[in-house]
Amino acid sequence: MRQEDFDSFFTALESKVSDFMTQLQQSAEETTAKMLANDEEKILLIEKLQLALVSKGDDIIKKLAEYQENAKSILGNMSINSHAAGYKIEADKARRTKNLFYWLTGISFVGLISSALWNSLHVPAEVNWTAVASKWVATFAISAAVTYFARQAAKHDINERDNRYMQLQLATMIHI
Question: Rounded to an integer, what distance in angstroms lies between the CA atom of residue 156 and that of residue 91?
């Protein structure tokens, strides 16, 4: 009997252990399925969040590109304005210098005419060629100054015109 009791006990124990193992396996499978279902939900949620973030990121990048274009436009206008202002400053300097050389040309031209008249009217009865030559050398020196001043005035006039033209071109670029 003891053997039979042991066998029946062992069979019952074996049955209980088998049932326990089956329940444990079922519980593990259910838990795994739940975890996988939760993980799939989490994965779907993460993918949705990722898509939302990518969409927001694209929107932000588009806005930044628009801001960049606006900034380029503003900076371009500022750059053009500053260049135009630089050309205006240079044109104003050239105008002042041109006017100075016009005055110097006019004054030295009057001096040239006065010197020529003086030399022509004050010729001694006895011609002294060294005195005449020295007077005319002074007259030619004044004429060289007149020529130089007139040439400088013309150069500065061209410079002023070129700078005004560039200023005008840059100013029209802003309004295009």
Answer: 9
- Tokens standing for residue 146: 């007149």
As a whole number of angstroms, the distance between CA 174 and CA 77 comes to: 6
To which residue do tokens 């588009």 refer? Answer: 62
Percent of the chain with pLDDT over 90: 23
Q: How many domains does the chain have?
A: 1
Sign of the Cα torsion 26, 28, 33, 34 reads: positive
* Polymer length in residues for the chain: 176
Dihedral angle over CA of 159, 160, 161, 165, nearest 10: 100
Instruction: Tell me the one-letter amino acid at 116.
Output: A
106-136 burial code (b ≥16 CB/10 A, e <16): eebbebbeebeeebeeeeeeeeeeeeeeebe
Instruction: Give the mean model confidence (pLDDT) for residues 161-165.
Output: 90
Domain range for 21 is 2-174
